[in-house]
Amino acid sequence: MGRAKTEAEIVDRAARFLKAELKRADVTYDELARRLKEHGLSETRDSSAAKLKRGTFAATFFLGCIAALEMEGIRLADI
After folding, report:
1. 76 burial class (0-12, 13-18, 19+ CB within 10 angstroms)?
2. Which residue ranges make up each domain of the chain?
3. Does the CA dihedral 54-57-63-64 come out positive or negative?
4. Among 8, 25, 64, 69, which is disulfide-ready with 41 (CB 3.0 to 4.6 Å)?
């Protein structure tokens, strides 16, 4: 087993993962905000961008992004 990750490493990896998935899916922050609204989350382009830039967001935002990107699942090793 590898060493335990610090909270800062986990935060950074989660944000990088979401940004990479958005790019891979060719989804803009405007489109992400629209899709998140469909999943019951009230986000704007700017609020989504700020959360991903800062790297701090609630699990509901993370899971909402996964749903908005229509990902059927993720492997923790990929984060």
Report:
1. exposed
2. 7-78
3. negative
4. 64
